[in-house]
Records
---
Amino acid sequence: MQGKKVLITGATGLVAGPVAKALAEHNEVWCLGRFSAPGSEAALRDHGITTFQWDLDNQGPTAYAGLPDDFTHVFHSAVRRGDGTDFTESIAANTTATGRLMAHCRTAEAFLFVSTGALYKRQTLDHRYRETDPIDGVADWLPTYPVGKIAAEGAVRALASVLELPTVIARLNIAYGPSGYGGVPMLYLKRMLAGEPIPVPLEGQNWCSLLYIDDLIAQVPKLFAAASTSATLVNWGGDESVGITDCVRYLEELTGVQAELVPSEITRETYQFDPALRHSLTGPCAVTWREGIRRTVAELFPEQLRESVS
Ligand SMILES: NC(=O)c1ccc[n+]([C@@H]2O[C@H](COP(=O)([O-])OP(=O)(O)OC[C@H]3O[C@@H](n4cnc5c(N)ncnc54)[C@H](OP(=O)(O)O)[C@@H]3O)[C@@H](O)[C@H]2O)c1
């Protein structure tokens, strides 16, 4: 993708930050956000990115004053996950911001909304979720999060159709890599380093479809190309199914740090995707999960990587 004018939200985050920096190499990139972390706005500007103050919670009529409206592509990744209790607030913030953003960028060639796989109705641990599977938006760990995403997907669908704005809704699995905090696998490594227990299911293990950040970046232009005014829906994960317990065991192998796995009724539930549709749109991933984990540990925790496996 070259010579385009791209608007990105959530670029201080794990996902959109690396996307923004990669696209900025050959495109004009604008990032909208609060940039609350000190230095985060300057870090984007250092890559030739233009920044613009924007708050999901403050979407009044002047929120877009002074912002150009001739963007060709929009990557909307910012999310208001909510406090876990106020559903109305979560729905209002995410839908209103998304609606205003789409209305402002109505002439774009493609709009990509980053959603989540956490909205699917839970089936067996090893079920491979497809785009047609039932959703229920139940997540005990943060109930407002999937509900806000389901609501925002509805707003996205409505505006894609009303504005005739080609759109893709990408339900993301677990993104990880050396950007930001590293993603869920690095949260497990931090627990291991702190000697904290990791709850695992009483039987079997949790499964997911880890997506390494380099593959995620490479797939963005292909997802833009798949946008449609009926809002193309796709599960966005990696090619491989990864067992969370297997992933923790591999972290042990890489670092020599032992994990305390504790069988438990309640665990951090994850989902594995059927990658067929995404594969047909983007082609295969290039980085295997073991290689991605090794690279991430090498970058973020170099002192922990055992020489024999580096
Ligand atoms: N990471 C994953 O594995 C994963 C999995 C499934 C789905 N997703 C989805 O992918 C997207 C990106 O996730 P992420 O992991 O990169 O998230 P993240 O690291 O937590 O970043 C969240 C982003 O949202 C922005 N944001 C939050 N509240 C805001 C507000 N009121 N106004 C403006 N911006 C606000 C944050 O900007 P500030 O600097 O201003 O706080 C930040 O840039 C999200 O939509 C998430 O639901 C992620």
Note: The longest helix spans residues 144-163.
---
Amino acid sequence: MSPRTRNSNLVPGGVALFHRVFTRIGCEGRPPHFRVEFYPYSSLVLTIRRREDLLIVRLSDLLSRAPLGVLESAAALLLSRVYRRRLPRALVQPYLTYARSGRTRSRISRMRGRRVRPKQAAPQGRQYDLAALFDQLNSKYFSGELRRPHIGWSVRGWRRQFGCYDPGPNQILLNRRMDRSGIPQFVVEYVLFHEMLHVKHPTRRSGCTLVSHSPEFRAEEKRFDQFTLARKVLDHLAR
Ligand SMILES: [Zn+2]
């Protein structure tokens, strides 16, 4: 990690930019004091907080080479939160377009690969060994060709999710709550298989909850032997 990413950097011209946008979104009077910095978040994040009479703005340093229009749009979004302004679409759109573009998405995932370390999580649970299950599923459904990512049981039980694949650290985690004898092995296998399909069909999106399931993905998922039954058991567990 270079010193540049370890600390936040002031955004050149950032204060003037916020003053300009402050007026442009219809705020009146003297603008507040700002401190505007780029910050090495592990995703595209914008934050604003108040400390006495100072507004501290942090923009993900992914934006450090973004065009001025995108920075103005980001500033407008942040100021609209603080001052409760409705923004004209023309002011919102540049940031949204930038954030949703394929290029930005792939920069985010490359950056997450560098900044997000895999969580400490062991594949060997009390009941099931995920590394062994991975190898079996790999040879059965993927001709043994899938490269094994980091795999483990989540450290704590999750309420909502059974598993996730995070492409940043290249890690599959399964919900620890399934590591018990009351859960049939094929159910654990199905959840692992699903996450393995995410390894096989990478999306540009990062994190656990944003992954998408293409029709191709859904079709391939049905190749799992006890697909219907596994889904039924999981639906039941989710209740
Ligand atoms: Zn999924």
Note: The pocket of zinc ion is lined by residues 194, 198, 211, 213 (CB under 6 Å).
---
Amino acid sequence: MIIKLIILAGLGLCFGSFVNALTWRIHKKKDWVKERSVCTHCGHQLAAKDLVPVLSWVSLRGKCRYCARRISIQYPVVELAAALVFMASYAFWPVGLGNGQSVLLVTWLVCSIGLLALFIYDARWMLLPNKIIYPTFALAAIGQFIYLVGFAPDKPAFLIGWGLSILAASGLFWSLFVISQGRWIGYGDVRLGLITGTILHSPALSILMIFLASLMGSLAVLPLLLTGKKKLSAKLPYGPVLILAAFICLLFGQSIIDWYKNSFLS
Ligand SMILES: [Zn+2]
């Protein structure tokens, strides 16, 4: 258990570093496979010792080795966040890892990298790029499909649950998008439902995700509204709260639903 958690933390740190590079390169429209990493200020090519997740940033005290300008705290924070997501997903996976659940866990870990990239991109630049959404959705769908063919005990029920889950995760945003003609939310939030709906593959969990996201979004916006830093009409990125809510629902959604049923409906 400990060894696996350490391996997952290491993988998470590396993928977090990849997410930082990926979002920056997509933003700058650079080739993210071929190009070497450079300092975003002075353009100096970075050496291997500058690219060690978290440790490089700490040992350089958040400054570029070549031009001494600040390196955003985003870099180590994202690397640590990815490591935490990897460890927490394994430690809190809601059911045992037998019966093909390990396929679903690996699918989720792979997709969490894409979702983390979307989280950062939307938070920084208010956009959910298709370049990240579609590959992540494809990977999620492939993983679910392998599970469906190889392990799902009741295949028709699984397919129906998957379809309804996407409908729940995307449908509300799609209606809001149509009603407001794109003024309230972006179409990226509709597309994001393809990924979260697939990962959760349960309409109940998808509805809970939207509920939690709305709750967290309101709590996050309220102080900004009260202090007058944002106006009610201001556009805010909705992607990050949706992605955070999807993560919570994946690991704890069923427990939340069971708790609610036992406390209020029995
Ligand atoms: Zn520099």
Note: Residues 39, 41-42, 44, 64, 66-67, 69 surround zinc ion (CB under 6 Å).
